[in-house]
Amino acid sequence: MDGLCLSEIGGCKDGRIGRGQLEDDGDDTQFKSKNLEAERRRRLKLSQRLLTLRSLVPKITNMNLATILDDAATYIVELKKNVDALSDQLLEMEASSEDGPKALVDEIDAVQDMEANGIKPDVQVTGIDEHKLWIKIVIPKRRSQFTKLLEMLSICGFELTDTSITTFKGAMLISSCMEGASGEMLKASQTKDLLQEIIKGI
Amino acid sequence: MIIDLDTTCFDRSAIAVPEGPDAVSPQTRDHPHSYHHHHQMQEIVPADFANENIYSCNTNNNHMMVEEAIDGDPSNTGNQPGLLQDMFQQLVADHAQNQNGITAQNSSNEIPPMPPPDHLGFFHLFHLARSSSSPSPPSPSSSLLPKPPLSYANPNVSPTSSVLYDPLFHLRNLQPQPPPMGELSFPYVGLPNEADRGEIVIDGEGGTTAAMMMMYGEDEGVLEMMEGGNRVKIGKRRGGNKLTKHFAAERDRRTQLNEKYVALRNLIPNPTKFDRASIVGDATEYIKELLILVKELNLILERKRWGRERKCKRRRVAIEEEEEEAEEAVDGESSITAVTPPGDLADWSFNGTLRSSCIQRKSKVTEVDVRIVNDEVMIKLVQRKKINCLLHVTRVLHELQLDLHHVSGGHIGEHYSFLLNSKICEGSTVYASTIASKVIDIVDRQYYAATPPPSSCSY
């Protein structure tokens, strides 16, 4: 509908092209009414949006269009100021507070957890297709493990397509379809070795 | 006043009134023979002259002249100039009389005193008179017949535009030279209420008729057009003061409205389209996001403070215990450890209020939906299949110190769709909007930076 109507910049309506340019006079009325419809819908859309805008703004002075816009603008400015003030406060607090070395603790715990629960690291690779492999990896969950793994994989030219990753008791299970990024043929055994190397390296 | 009905000789230079008796002599002008003028003249006559109770022969003369003018055809220049000049002179003379008693003396011999100068009538006269200017260039003193209302009300308007926007331009078989506006050696220059040039008394005093007002209104319409209404077409002559006032007001209203739209748009961070509806829509969404941000910030701050308080309390308690212990000279370790409440982390997050926020961002190729509940972040990502977006998203999450717990998703139709669940590391503050923006930003960038065969993308 809006394809033929030039967008208004600043509300100037001069560039509006009606839809009746394709047909001759016989269809004029039909197209004219389409344009009318389009225009009506456009106006409706605008007024609905204005109403929603007004409903958001707490301070309403008058109920006419100009004040809606004005009030909305002032409200936005106010909110922005609030956000800035609050985030400044937050920064101050962060600066003065201590950030505990909890991350490391977690990581160390993860390995222990895994072992405690009898989960063993594992790598399995099976070929589904010429180009697809299915892999299953169990590794201890550490902060950046997965990221690093993905990075290494992408460097080697692999891409995980359908993936499911879960974490349980310090172990992370990656079960995924893997494809060669450039559609090359993959062999299961080779890939498995490669993966094991990668995991060791992480 | 010496008006010779039969002759067309008038002393042109005498038009500048304050200069003395000569001033009152009219100039020869071509009579403006538009119907328009006829109307006005017709109506001006009774109005103007009706107020003047003093006119005797002059009035009669004028009437006659007017009638002739009305009846006469455009080509008749004989008597008509006289009429205009007549009225002109009378008003002028009258004013002169009022202002400079002496000068008026002479003229008053010829022209009986008139009621207080009727500005409107004067304007009207000028209007008419101007149109009747003869081919020969008027002398400077007589060039005080430019478009008076324009200059009266807005002396700053350039002379050239006066011609352009003169609604009656085409009607006056005009010689090409419009009297320059700036040179308003207007007899009324010395008027007391001259200061009020911007305010034209529209509902004029003293017998302005509808016709005059109409005339006046036109002039004002012209004026308004010149003042910068670029939407009004040239030659708009609806007539009537009220209507032109209305147009002006309407136009002002429109410009102000547009300014406000622009102002609103400038506040919004990423305006894509620039039409009214989308500006308003974007503004609404932005306000919602800001509200969420504020809520989040407040919550985070609260929690931090709360957490701090607890820590302080614990420490204080521990210290007290220590002191007590020390006093009692008992081994302090066990007592301190006993005081530390277990699992305070869990308590900390349930401060009473749940932090929940939901932000969505969309772009041409990507959709991101971020939901935060307490310290769990759920990110949903849908992107057209081209690159390995999973890699990039995980990188982003790593940067933001989010701990990936769970990921699932894959290749669906033409898109990649992933759902990532992560936890916010303790101590870090992230807002939903930050996450959303960053994710969609990076993912989009990578998407567009990728070459068609989706090989590895450098980050």
Structure, described:
The complex is a heterodimer of chains A (202) and B (459). Chain A has 202 residues and is an alpha+beta fold. Chain A has a domain of 102 residues: Alpha-Beta Plaits (2-Layer Sandwich), CATH 3.30.70.260. Chain A has five helices and four strands. In chain A, a hairpin with a 2-residue loop joins strand 3 and strand 4. The longest helix of chain A is centred in the middle third of the chain and has 32 residues. The radius of gyration of chain A is 31 Å and the shape is flat. Chain B starts with 34 loop residues before the first helix and ends in a 10-residue tail after the last helix. In chain B, 49% of the residues lie in helices and 10% in strands. Chain B is an alpha+beta fold and 459 residues long. Chain B contains 14 helices and five strands. In chain B, strand 4 and strand 5 form a beta hairpin. Chain B is flat, with a radius of gyration of 42 Å. Strand 3 of chain A pairs antiparallel with strand 4 of chain B, so a sheet runs across the interface. Chain B: This is BHLH domain-containing protein. Chain B: One of its GO terms (cellular component) is nucleus. Chain B: Keywords: Nucleus, Transcription, Transcription regulation. Chain B: It comes from Eucalyptus globulus (Tasmanian blue gum). Chain B: It is found in: Nucleus. Chain A: InterPro entries: bHLH_dom, HLH_DNA-bd_sf, TF_AMS/ICE1/BHLH6-like.
